């Protein structure tokens, strides 16, 4: 009874497929038509064809094997279609439909529970947004792509109790060019819960890092047991940590969300990295999915802007890391091509007279220098001596040491940053965020 | 001996104007040609015309009155051209040229000092980037506009010890659409220093908020005396707060930057808001320049995404603010148009079924409700019921209470956020940053 078919089905039926463009059952069908390579069976008793595909009056009318069912019919007929799915031996079903225990309809929720038990159907939902998997084209997000962008294929897995939070974050990720392996919102968790999903992602080869947004846990002991075994970084953001927040969470997902210390303690026990904020989740996810772990805590700063070097030095020390010092031998090598007023003791400040070659050599030397564990590369692209090729030069350097880029600027900078990010070099706008990412890498390397 | 002519001269001469496109003396001249309405006199003994303007062999050759001189000739001839400026009775001079005390050339620095004393010339620099004033077109930033964007006219004033830091931040501001009144980097501060500039900005009608990046202070007592008198918010970011950072600062601006506690203490004494990071400087600058001060600490959260409501509630409590509760009367009014499953106790969660009208009414009621001091408006634009007109509806509401927008998403969201920002509604991507901005407003209202 695996979860695999939620993400990688050979065939899918959309139960409640619709002809009307703004309906959930149309948008989801269109998502599959646009991006999914397997067989698609729209189920709608009143339509003959939707989006060029033959419609089926019911699930039972489909002759071939169906791996995944997506249910978006009104709540009261969900039990009926689930029975049909059971008889058809569909082993994985996503119930998008809302209107169950989250609005007090426990009777309907229990009816669903019994049917999926009887037929051993692994179920996501009800009351969920479901799955987005850019690798296979499974996409049950019911906001159209014009409003909500979809991130590209990558290695960040995302599990969210809140459907809106998940979809909005996906939208943001697509803008920022963060790449993901799978995203799952699990709604009422009538069957599959956060622990099942974390366990699944821990074995998924495409996922390097697991992110979690959670308000309450369905089964705390199970969660701890599962999380402790995971060998990948898990980054968790907990909603409802304060009295006010917990009270909001109660009306939101019905979770008893309080007892923040207990959560934080459990996270620590299970080696879960707790983020304080949405932006931190992604800073950590990016760095942990893209960069190797450091051997120690010495950070070489390379900059062409003195002020940014000073601010970065401050954060390195505040966060308990150390400022690295390039060996004398390597400083001598560097001195041959940098201006006499450039500083090299501690921070390497190439100054506004910087060229692409100076950046390239500095990074190469830091990568091979035994005094350096990590590199904070402050790439300020405004000085005239830097050519756009600096990006290619940096990307060509093979490094087993983590490198973060700190780079602030306007359009020109954004263009070059995008190229770096697309090739696995995480870029940060502020010294604080860049150093926090390095700190997280160092911390995780010690677990 | 006012600083006014640095920002609002009727005439300017560029001493060292150049025909060569990549030279500082050309870029600065071009900045003035492109954006300045007064008279422009290029000075270059070897050229007849540059950029269509008649060239002067020397300052003394100019017949008319000159308000501002911009010097970008080689260091060794700076004293000579300063003498000429003095005789010509130019009262304000910006010396861009580097190569003085910052590289150990104290003799040349002293020569400059004596001449400007003798002629009572108010001087910015040497070794500085100088001034950018979008209101008047004064722009001595010597990075071309293709690499370094210029922010539009607004009310944030920026003073930076570090020239590169200032110019890079301006580039970033232009991308993010932050608007400024004036930006000044003052380099070696041979004459005009940070305190003079703060005092000037405190009296400048176009400036509502003063931002400061500083590594060391030239005269601590003067700084305290000046800052204490300022009736506008001052936001300061101090570089070189740790041992490592201070050591970087020493090689950067030659500042004795340490003694972080002394700085923080002084900032507190002078009612200066200390930011921890570059991004925080701008979050605070935006909110303090654009929004009114609150009467109390009760924040009404309005959202269409439950998870974001929970996270925002958490931050409100963590930051020592309070979650507001709309009066029963207003809740009844709201209930008439919102879905039955929307929550209104504490957080107003309009759910994914939100419409533009629901947002409009919620904000209107919160603005007039006596239980509400501030509004955290979480505008998630992804649900299909929201039309683009929601932005106009929100912008039309007259509010004497501060409103921050928290909004996360992709391209569609960015477009609508830009319109809000352009009309003075600060938008934040994460709950944490939005609430931190409200906290800063509240804190400043208590000073």
Layout: helices, strands, pairs:
Two copies of one chain form a homodimer.
Chain A: H1 4-7, E1 11-15, H2 24-35, E2 39-43, E3 49-50, E4 53-54, E5 68-71, H3 78-87, E6 92-95, H4 106-118, E7 122-124, E8 130-133, E9 138-139, E10 153-160, H5 163-176, E11 180-185, H6 194-203, E12 209-214, H7 220-229, E13 234-238, H8 243-253, H9 260-269, E14 273-275, H10 278-290, E15 298-303, H11 306-318, E16 322-323, H12 328-335, E17 348-349, H13 356-368, E18 374-378, H14 390-396, E19 403-406, H15 411-422, E20 427-428, H16 431-445
Parallel strand pairs in A: 1-2, 1-5, 5-6, 6-7, 10-11, 10-12, 12-13, 13-14, 15-16, 15-17, 15-18, 18-19, 19-20
Antiparallel strand pairs in A: 3-4, 8-9, 8-11
Q: Can you offer a commentary on this structure?
A:
The structure is a homodimer of 447-residue chains. By secondary structure, chain A is α/β, with parallel strands linked by helices. Chain A has a domain of 154 residues: Succinyl-CoA synthetase domains (Rossmann fold, 3-Layer(aba) Sandwich), CATH 3.40.50.261. Chain A is elongated. At the A-B interface, helix 5, helix 8, helix 11, helix 15 and helix 16 of A face helix 5, helix 8, helix 11, helix 15 and helix 16 of B.
